[in-house]
Amino acid sequence: MNPAVPPALDQVIHHPTRLTMMAFLAGCAEAEFAAVRDYCQVSDASVSRIATALEEAGYLKIRKGAVGRRPRTWLSVTPAGRTALKRHLAALQAIADAAQEAGAGAGAKAEASGRDG
Fold first, then answer.
1. What is the 3-state secondary structure (H, E, C) of the chain?
2. Which intervals of the chain form a coiled coil (predicted)?
């Protein structure tokens, strides 16, 4: 990887809470709003705001309904959202791999120059 051209991170899901939500939802067919809120450890307002942004990007589907007389909201990742998450995770892995490789190379150079001096 050329460090001057880093892999493209998806700015829609790059924020840690959005990434956590997407990863959680990618692991299931659908999750109730409260389960997502509890897993992400954020407020109802935060889940609502993030879910709306992800839905507008086409990454999430929001389904509203009721259980008995109580309103409920379910969230699920769309096929486009799954693809975006996979690409984002691959980009993060590429960055980590390149940094590790560069660090190993720099360490070897420093070690070699230390022996020469």
1. CCCCCCCCCCCCCCCHHHHHHHHHHHCCCCEEHHHHHHHHCCCHHHHHHHHHHHHHCCCEEEEEEEECCEEEEEEEECHHHHHHHHHHHHHHHHHHHHHHHHHHHHHHHHHHHHHHC
2. none
Task: Name all domains of the chain by residue range, CATH numbers in brackets.
Answer: 16-116 (1.10.10.10)
Query: What does the pLDDT look like over 24-80, one tens digit per residue?
Result: 999 999 999 999 999 999 999 999 999 999 999 999 999 999 999 999 999 999 999
Structure tokens, 2: 């050329």
In angstroms, rounded to a whole number, what is the distance separating the alpha carbons of residues 50 and 81? 14
Question: What single-letter amino acid sits at 107?
Answer: G
CA-angle at 63, arms to 57 and 10, nearest 5°: 20
- For residues 29 and 43, give the distance between their C-alpha atoms in angstroms, rounded to a whole number: 22
Regarding pTM above 0.85, the answer is no
